[in-house]
Amino acid sequence: MPAHRFDLANPAARASRVTLRRGIGLVLSTLLLPGSAQLQGGNRTVGRVALRIWAVLLTSLVLLAVTGLLWRGALVTLLASGALYKLLQPLVIALGVGEAYLIIDAWRIAQPLQMDRRRRLGFGIASLVTALAVLAGSIGLGQAARAQGDLLDTVLRGGGNSTSHQGRYNILMLGADAGDDRVGLRPDSIMVASVDDVTGRTVMLSLPRNLEGVRFPATSPLREKYPQGYECPDHSCMLNAIYTLGTDNADLYPGVDDPGLQAMREAVSETLGLGINYTIMVDLAGFSSVIDAVGGIRLDINKRVPIGGGTSPIRGWIEPGKDVHLDGYHALWFARSREGSSDFERMVRQKCVVNAMLQQLDPVTVMTRFTDIASAGRQVAFTDVPSKDVNKLATLSARTRKLPIMSVSFTPPLVYPGNPKYDVIRRVVAQKIAASEALDAPRKAPSASAPRSRAQTPRKPDSSRPVVSSSPAPESEDLAAVCGS
C-alpha cells in the first residue's frame, strides 16, 4: 500500500511524521539561529535573549574583521593579549552550555510524545548527541583559548627594547640546559639574529659557549668587578657561565627580574658591539617539544651524527641524506651531540636547526597545530617580546623567510675562544651587517622625486661599531658541510 494511503488510514502515523519533521526543523534552526525555536513555540523571552546574544557576537566579529582591514596592527596586538583568551574560555563554555540547553528545549517544544516510539527514540538520541557535541566543542574551544592565553603570557612577557638600533632589531637567542648534572643554568647555544627593520634580511651570529675573557659594558654592574673581562685561572669563566654569575650577583641588579639573563645580554652586546632588543631563551626540553608540535623539520644532512656518546653509550645514529625528516628527539640530538665533533661543529648544527625552523614555521602550520605548540610553548624559559610588537616582528619574519640568511660563527681559525680577539669579532660583525645591507641598497634607496622616509634616511654612524673594512669578512664555517645541499 502506498505510504500516503497508509497515512490516511492511520492519522497517528501521519501526525508522528509531521511532528518529527517539525522537531528536526526546530533543532536545525536552533543550530543556525539560537533562540528561533523558542520564538516559534516556547519561551519567547528566552528566544529573544538568545537572539540578542547571537546578534552581539556577529556584530563583534564584523567589527574585528573591519579592524583587521583598517588597523591590522591594532587587531594583532589585541589577539596577542593573553588576558583576552583567558576571558574567552568561560565565555565560550557558557555559550556552549546555553546552546546545548536551547537544543534540548527545541526537542521539548517539538512535543516528541506525539511521535511513535521508534521516531521518538531516534529523534531523542539525535537531539541529545547534537547537544553533547555542541557542549564538547565549546569545552574544547575554551581549553584551546586558555592554552593560547597561557602561551602568550609565557612567550610575550614584555620588557624588550622596541626601538631599533641603527635600523636593526637584534634578537638574542639562548638554548639553555639546566640538567641535574649542571651547576646552575648554562646557555649552551648563544646566537644573535640581527634583522633589518625594513627588509627583514637577517644575519645570524653565533658565539661559542666557551668564550673566555668576555667583557662587560661600562653601564654593567659587573664591569667594576671584572674590569679586564670575565677570566679565571682555571679557565672556567666562560660565556655560558655568565648567566649563573649574574644570578649569584643578584644584589648588583636590584629590581631586575632575571639578573642572570640581564648579565648575558650585557656580555653579548659588548662582545658583538650590538644593542640587544629582545631575548628568547628556550630550554632543551622545550626545544624538542616545539619541533614535535610543528610536525618536525627537514634538513639536508651531509654528516653522520651519533645519538648519545660521552659518558653514555651511543644508542643510534642520525644518518646523512637529502630532505631528512627529524622529529623533536632527533633534532635535539642533531643540535647537541658532542661525540666525535667539536663545539664549533655543534654550533653549526644548531644554526642549521634554527635556520630550518625559521624557514619552515609558516602561519598555516602554527594554526593547524596550535594546541600542541601552545602546550610546548610553556617550556619556553623566557622572552621579553611585548604583545604590541608582535605585528611588527611577524611582518619582518614573513620577509625574512623569503630571503637567504647570512651567518658567521666565531670559531677557529677566525676566533680562538681561549684567547679571543674582540676587535676581530666586532669588525666581522660590522662587515657582515654592511654586506647584508648592501644587498638591499637599491630597494631602500629613495627615488629623485620621492621624499625620504625614516627607513630611507641614511643611517648615522654607530659609535659602538668598528669602522668597516673594505676587505671581505672571513668565514669560519661552511653550513653546507653539515646541513647544506
Q: What this model shows, in words?
A:
The chain has 485 residues and is an alpha+beta fold. It has 18 helices and 10 strands. It has a 6-stranded mixed sheet, with helices on both faces. Helix 8 crosses helix 9. About 8% of the residues have low confidence.
**Rounded radius of gyration (Å):** 30 Å
Oligomer: single chain
Mean pLDDT: 79
* Helicity level: 40-55%
Beta strands, count? 10
Count of DSSP-assigned helices: 18
Major sheet: arrangement of strands: 9-4-1-2-3-10
Strand content: 5-15%
Which sequence of SSEs, written as H and E, runs from N to C? HHHHHHHEEEHHEHEEEEHHHHEHEHHH
Structural category is alpha+beta
Main sheet overview = 6 strands, mixed
CA-to-CA gap between the ends? 76 Å
Low-confidence stretches: 179-183, 446-477
Approximate shape:
elongated
Task: Give a short summary of the structure.
By secondary structure, this protein is an alpha+beta fold. The chain is 51% helix and 13% strand. Helix 2 (11-32) packs parallel to helix 7, helix 4 (44-70) crosses helix 5 (72-79) and helix 6 (82-109) runs antiparallel to helix 7.
Task: Summarize the topology.
Elements: H1 3-9, H2 11-32, H3 36-41, H4 44-70, H5 72-79, H6 82-109, H7 117-155, E1 168-177, E2 186-196, E3 202-207, H8 242-248, H9 259-272, E4 278-283, H10 284-293, E5 297-301, E6 305-309, E7 312-318, E8 321-326, H11 328-336, H12 343-360, H13 363-368, H14 370-377, E9 380-383, H15 390-400, E10 406-409, H16 422-439, H17 441-444, H18 479-483
Parallel strand pairs: 1-4, 3-10
Antiparallel strand pairs: 1-2, 2-3, 4-9, 5-8, 6-7
Helix pairs in contact: 1-2, 2-6, 2-7, 4-5, 6-7, 7-14, 8-9, 10-11, 10-14, 11-12
